[in-house]
Amino acid sequence: MLAPPKRLVGWTRVDLAAGESRTVHVSFPVSLLAVTVGDIDGSGTRAVERGQYEVQVGSMSAGFTVG
Fold it and tell me: What pLDDT, in 10s, does the model give residues 7-43?
């Protein structure tokens, strides 16, 4: 199965004035992590692989497990 090492699965736009900071929450359904199992032509079934995932926002990151 082919999957890119990094994917954009959630985002939000935030307008900030100079020097302003804000806490922002971005969520996404785990189904967006699904990849196509099977041949390179993508004709297989989409599934989320079990294992450890890392979410990165700027220089911060956090991990979670799909079981």
Answer: 899 989 999 999 999 998 888 999 998 888 766 676 7
> Could you tell me the maximum CA-CA distance found in the chain, to the nearest angstrom?
49
**DSSP string covering 3-29, please?**
--S------------TT----------
Three-class secondary structure of residue 55 per DSSP: strand
In angstroms, the CA 52 to CA 67 distance is 9
- Measured distance CA(64)–CA(19) in Å, rounded: 32
